[in-house]
Recover the amino acids of this structure.
């Protein structure tokens, strides 16, 4: 028995805005999204709905750049 696909087109999850449904991969719905930084990416719908995926990857870079612990760790390594 098939489950009905949840239409999340037009909704925003974190920094991602869902543009369109693109198909399924391993029985999981994939959506084309636009991040607030302007990058377009394909994201699994379930991952967005539960909060696992919030951006195209720009959020991770921003958090790492703002984290003083990560900066001091990178400065401490010298070869």
């Amino acid at each position: 028995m098939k489950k009905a696909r949840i239409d999340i087109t037009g909704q925003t999850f974190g920094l991602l805005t869902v543009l369109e449904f693109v198909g399924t991969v391993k029985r999981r719905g994939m959506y084309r999204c636009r991040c607030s930084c302007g990058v377009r990416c394909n994201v699994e719908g379930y991952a967005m709905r539960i909060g696992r995926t919030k951006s195209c990857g720009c959020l991770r870079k921003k958090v790492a750049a703002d984290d003083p612990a990560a900066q001091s760790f990178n400065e401490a390594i010298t070869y």
User: Anything to note?
Assistant: Residues 40 and 46 are 18 Å apart (CA to CA).
